[in-house]
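Predict structure. Chain length: 373.
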Amino acid sequence: MALCLLSCKNQKTAVNYEDSPEEVLTRILEEEVQATDVNVAGVSLTVISPQLGINFSGASGYDSTTKNQMLSPDQPFRIASLTKTFVSTSILRLREKGLVSIDDPITDYISKEHIAILKKGGYIPSKITVKHCMMHTSGLFDYAEGNMDYITEASKDPNKRWTRTEQIQWAMDHGTPQGAPGENYHYSDTGYVLLGEIIEKQTGKGLAQGMRELLKFDQLGMSSTWLESLEDRPNGLPTSVRRYMDTIDATVWDNSVDLYGGGGLQSTTRDLATFLQALFSDKIYEQSETLPVMLLKSEFSGDPLTEYRLGFGYIKGKKSDIEAYMHSGFWGTLFIHFPAYNCSIAINHTNDESNGALQKVIDYIQWLDEHQS
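Prediction complete.
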């Protein structure tokens, strides 16, 4: 997702920035749903920035394309690949505990069965490190992202309960190594399902409970976030937002199609922004050097899509020094943190993801910072 990350104060907008943050952000959401150039059924948003005096959650539109129920900001949704940020953070928490070294080969941590599958698929797993998987430089073929063969197979039986082993084997059967480990960037859910296995093994508590404890969900008050089907849905939550693949309602698909590390979490924009704020405010990591390790620059740069750190994409304004760390998800979810503003934004579209509202929010944040200085 490309964002200008620039002050767009010369652009015309129907929003009066002099209004309160609640009024401005609510109007931005309404404009997104009312826009004629996109087909957005609904959009929810949370913006948290103590520095700018913003603590907002809101929603506009509907929770499905049938438009039978209005969307509320406390409705959870499948966040897809945003789960990768949570997985990488969990691995780095294991590193803090001395249970994982990210420079170790994955063969130190994954099952003999999976090592054998990788070898048979043409890989040398002893040369793939944990860090390679975190940065998408493992060379592992991606069984899921953009893989229409996998999507077609999954659509044949939406109720099928996939296993991690089946997904690793799928990658071996339907693709070849994408380069030597550390040689180039190649986005890979396969690497992240292996990271999920590492969390399971090193915590001994399963992926859901392991992540929950490592990431301090309960202490942070993230009561609307859970690893779907691997732990109980929290009590009292409203129905989840529908999920779509083009015009296909994939809500009823068994979530094991994207579960074991590459995706799997359900959450809300409030919980997602809360997580980002905690991560960048030293409330999750227990050692001061861990966050800088997570944000280390890769040797592969240039295209913003390949500016990937350890569980985060990195983007920078073309005409400014504004930096941000972000991740997007297949179902229309994105979160982003701006260290300069101590600002976290999480946004979710019911369908037909659009950059419009997010860019307007960023423009407003920058305007607010300039006018509060």
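Summary: The chain has a mean pLDDT of 92.
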